[in-house]
Each structure stands twice: as C-alpha cells, then as structure tokens.
Predict the 3D structure of the following.
Amino acid sequence: MPTAIVIGSGLGGLATALRLAHKGYTVTVFEQNDYAGGKLHAIEQEGYRFDLGPSLFTLPHLVDELHQLFPQHKINFDYIKKEIGCHYFWEDGTVFHAYTNQADFIDHAGDVFVEPRSKLINYLKKSKSKYDLTKSLFLEKSLHKWSTYLSKDTFKAVLNAPFLGLNNTLHQENSSFTNPKLTQLFNRYATYNGSSPYKTPGIMSMIPHLEMGIGTFYPHGGMHRISQSLFELAQKVGVEFRFRESVTQINHDHKKATGVTTENGIFPSDLVVSNMDIYPTYKKLIKGIHEPKKTLEQERSSSALIFYWGINREFPELDLHNILFSEDYPSEFEHIFEKKSLSNDPTVYINITSKETKTDAPQGCENWFVMINAPGNYDQNWEELLKNARENIILKINKCLKTDISKHIATEYVLDPRGIEKNTSSYRGALYGAASNDKFAAFLRHPNFNKRLKNLYHVGGSVHPGGGIPLCLLSAQITADLIPQA
C-alpha cells in the first residue's frame, strides 16, 4: 500500500489522515505534542473542565461526513442545535438574544433595536445568497486550479460579483442599519476569520447565514469531543500516531517530496501533508527551495488572550455564548491591527460549556472561557498587557452584568498569543493564519498543494480556504481530493 505522512494532528491533519486512510493509504501522523487536536484541546483544573480552543460549532455535517467514511466503526459523537446562538450585552443595559431561528431573530431584533423588519429580512436573505453563490468557489475547491474557474458555479459568482460586496468593507455593508448596535453586532462576524470589519470585504456578510440560516450547535462533551472523536476513529482505522516526535525536515529529491526527518530518523513516504502553519513549514522544514515570499508576508490574523476562570456561582442571564461589547469598536480594531496592542475597552466573549454539560464545573459553579481579540506576538510586553487586560475585562463584566466578578474567581488559567504560538506552531500566535483584511486575501492564501515540490500538500487554517473549524475541515476535503486514490 502507498504511504502518506501527515505533519501535525490539528483538526485539518486528523481529517486529512482519515480521508487518506479511506483512499487506501497507510498513514502516519507526527505530532510535537503528546495529544491530538491542535487548538482543539482541553484541560481540567480544580474540578473545572475547559475547552482551550475554538468554542463555536457550525456546519456539523462536515464532522459527520468523516465518521460516515467508516460506517463499520461506531464512535460516540453527537450534538444538539442551539435555539439561541448568543447573548449580547451593552453597558447601557441593552440585552439581545440572537435566536438561530430567523423569524424569531428578526422579531426580537426589530423590537430591541427598533429596526424595520423588512431591512433585517433583506439583510439575511442577501447573506444566504452570498454564501450560496460563493461556497463552491471559495470553500469547496482549490482556488489555484484552472478547473475551478471553468465551472457553472464560478460563472454564476462572477456574474454576481457587484452584488457580493467585494468593493465595500463589512462595516460599510452593515452601516445600512439605523441602530449602530445592530451594525456592531453584524460587524462582529469579521472576527470569525481574525480580521477587522473596517478592512475585510463586505462579502464576509455571508457568515451570519452559518448561524441564522444553518444553525449553531454544541457537541456533547464539549468542543474537545470533536477532535477526540476523529482521533479515536483514526486509531481504529489503522492511522499510526507518533506523539512527542517533531518533524525537523521535509525531505525532497528532484523537486519531489520523499518523506520526513525527525529526531528519531528518516521516514520515507509516497506523499507528505503538512498541517503545520505555512510560515514555519517553509522557514523550518523545507530547505533548498524558493519561498513564496508574497504569501509568507501576508498580514497575520488576530490572536487571542484567554482567561479560563472557575466561577463559584451561577449566572442565569448568561448562556453558552455571550458577548459584552466595547463602547468604541473602531478603536478596538485599530489597537489590534495598527498598534499591535490592546484597547482599554475590549469586547469580551464568554463561553460557558457547563450551561450544557453540567459536569464541566462543580455544582452551583460555572466554567468561564473569557476571551478578547488580541494582536499576534510581536514581542510586546505581554506581562503588562495581561495585567491591564484582566482589569479591563473585569470592569466590562461588572458594568454589563452588575456584579463584582473578581470575588467569584475560584481558579484561573491564562493563554496568550505566546502560548498559542508555542503550543500550535501558529506563526505569531495567529488563530487563522493570514488576515482577510483585503479583497484579494483569499487568492493570496497558500494552495493546498505545493507548486515547487510534487507530492507535498498543505492543510489547515493557514492555507486555503482559511481558519476555524468548518474551513479546516473543508481544507482537508480539498487536499484529499487533489490526491489520487491509492
């Protein structure tokens, strides 16, 4: 049987390993950490369980498809659909529950923001149309193969280009709303790919359709269950995992990848797939070939600063997903992308899985994943930034929830861009690889194949089509489709 090596066991790496095993390859995965899952990891601390990484689950069928590749192996993985996608809070006391049912969302938004329902209906209809028009081109196929541009779907997307909002920013697309709070709410979707709403193109207004058109979901056992279910399935179908074994070089000869080198030796292979961030893949693993300079110099996406707090009481006004908005959104993104710093008035995201999985916290308590968007690691004074951020986060929570949260923090764990970079080899700790602060950013992402080395492929959040759980899984699908059947 032909062999395949996958470097890294993040979500993209796990999904690719499964797809290649299904195609008949003998697959070996090399992983620098002692666990599989990459950013989809978890910890337990003093009776509290925390998902460390991504907290939003959309397009669950992409995970189901991987399990369905091997129907003879039953792995426990299920999920529920949420009725409310997110609870939103502002300092002036405004509270909004974003229902995932569109009719309910429109009614509630019309009441809370005093916005004409016709405008909301039209916005969500356009969001769906943009998603339907572009998903085949931007999300399901390689942008770097001519065959992609010869399809009927591409022709349709090109015809509708003026409608897609490519020449506007997301903020400009959303400024048609009368209430600035509603504009801010829809501007937030730029953060789903680590970008600024004041720079990213208006086509990103298709993202709300994922939540309000398709739905927001929660996997039983938490987000960590996504990666672990795929890891368990991969083990069952014969994928070999070599943990704590870093790849030090991708070997090649006559412009063809021939395997990898680790500290334990040389491992030949018929093909190699790198799930490692594209920047360190070139800088650390590939010797003697010309680097794609323009791609590697792309602006990095935002990172995150996360406080994992065990809270010794319950907050019934909160749900699984909660947003406490900044009073000055433009300044927040200016600090992140221009000043490489943190605003003193950050938007705070709180994820509480114990709302759904009670055993994630002791009885009468909650496990809070408290995150703010942050710049990547540019050697800032992180100790000072952390100290100020913690104070400002507590201030925001106290104002919006009318509480004194500091006296309820029973335990704490902190992750900043330095830790994200170290644990996941993500260049500068960027969560989504390159930012999408440009209408051409999608075309500048590295392809899922290597133009310089035959039999070398790339998968994950730093290559096409982008970061986040759905896009990493689609990346694996695109990559596997480029690789012939064994």
Notes: The first helix runs from residue 11 to 22. The mean pLDDT is 93. The first strand starts at residue 3 and ends at 7.
